[in-house]
Amino acid sequence: MIESIVKPKDGLPLTRHPDLVLISDTPKGRGVFAAKDIPAHTILETCPVLVLDPQENKLHIEKTSLYHYTYNWPTTTATGKPQTTQAVILGLGSMFNHSTADQNVGWERDVINGLVTYKSLREIREGEELCISYGSRLTFVDADAAAQTVDEGDGSLVLGSIEVDDI
Amino acid sequence: MIESIVKPKDGLPLTRHPDLVLISDTPKGRGVFAAKDIPAHTILETCPVLVLDPQENKLHIEKTSLYHYTYNWPTTTATGKPQTTQAVILGLGSMFNHSTADQNVGWERDVINGLVTYKSLREIREGEELCISYGSRLTFVDADAAAQTVDEGDGSLVLGSIEVDDI
């Protein structure tokens, strides 16, 4: 029986903050918003990822609109050489819009376990949209009118710091 | 300001049950398990979906392993004719494994809002894996040894009923 071979207490927690809502009709399209105030440094969601085969990614996924939703993901070749592919984020991570001027969400890859965890970078007030920086993956015209010069990092969260997007 | 143009209290709730964990090393690969008992008819997760362009889907996505994670999704052509494409389920819906003999999770599409909601079909005990029926999308050898004849429905949950997979 399954009960005898797995230990759910040793499983990886799949947190999602309970005070998040999806709103469809915004200037950025669908987006995730805070329904209540959320403190700084709060886990917003842990998302499993689907790591794409590098060949399939190059041949197919890069040619579709899905590509714009994927994240860079480190992997290795059959001979152990490092290479980069893409991963699909299976959760709200794929729904967070971009903000250059006022990102309030940072993220961190867990490559071993195939997870991305998102945290609030500062207090997020009720009614605010949750936004990450897409960094160098920005493939559209920035909807933030007062765009600032932005570090083209990859958006990884530096744990214990509210400085992100600078690795 | 964003606060003035959206109403988070009118947003779509993004429920995820708090007692779910991910376990990587199971006979079916990664899977979602109950860390505590979960009552019947409980919402397990509401997942936004990414509806794929039908042309891109046919030309590219169908040729990748990602295809096996997608769900059939109704859409219309430019002239309003019904057609079927695929959607990527952005959440744990993409992580639920298949069970022919003992599925305990049903699901329902919300086509208007681009969501899928998953509910427990019966009480799920601590330690059990959460499994749906892939129905006619079964593209692999069934890991359930005692497989029964199964209705090749599309797995949609009939709300208010524990009879599923029969539409």
Automatic annotation (TrEMBL), chains A, B:
PROSITE patterns, sorted? SET (PS50280)
Positions of the SET domain: 18-135
Name the Pfam families for this protein: SET
Task: Name the InterPro entries for this protein.
Answer: SET_dom, SET_dom_sf
Q: Quote the protein name from its UniProt record.
A: SET domain-containing protein
What is the organism of origin for this protein?
Answer: Corymbia citriodora subsp. variegata
